[in-house]
């Protein structure tokens, strides 16, 4: 039996495309620094895209600035890679490694905004009922799909202790996406190509437990950076 990593992929479907709908939410294309990394740009190794596609590269939800808020701890992370096969089979993929296409990731960016991040005791999987933060921005930068947002630090003090304790020369924390309405191009293929999906959340976990080992997660403590999220 093949080992399953912790990304959650809901049962694939051949249904019509999902149209993400966000009401009463301000969306902005971003070009600013979040936790020291620039959003809203294309990395040097990425081929130029049409201007219309560039508009979906980075999106964010605006929140009022509250200086010193005890329950808002800014974070950023690499949620997954696009156009790159997973290192292991995600949970729900029936033993298949998967590849999330860039087009699918860009189309699904709006569905990430406002979704929760969660964690599981043991830091080895997902627990959708342990929602410990919120995603407020997302972007596709080269082959990386990055996110940022806030942890509920006052409600989950153990999160801060664990993440800070793992932030050494080789940080050990990563991320794992949660999907619904995933469309697989060819379910008979050994490598499943996801051409459509809706993001329903993400988990914070040990990097070596994720289907993609190149994910990451870190906290941002600078007041200037916190204002940018």
Verbal overview:
The protein has 229 residues and is mainly beta. It has one domain. The protein has four helices and 14 strands. It has helices spanning 51-54, 102-112, 157-165, 223-228, and strands spanning 4-9, 27-28, 33-34, 37-38, 58-61, 73-81, 89-91, 97-100, 116-118, 131-141, 144-151, 173-184, 191-206, 216-219. The strands form two sheets. Strands 1, 2, 5, 6, 7, 8, 9, 10, 11, 12, 13 and 14 form a twelve-stranded mixed β-sheet that branches. A two-stranded antiparallel ribbon has the order 3-4. A hairpin with a 2-residue loop joins strand 3 and strand 4 (37-38). The longest helix is centred in the middle third of the chain and has 11 residues, at 102-112. The radius of gyration is 17 Å and the shape is globular. Residues 13-34, 36-56 and 223-229 have low confidence and may be disordered. Residues 30-49 are annotated as: Disordered.
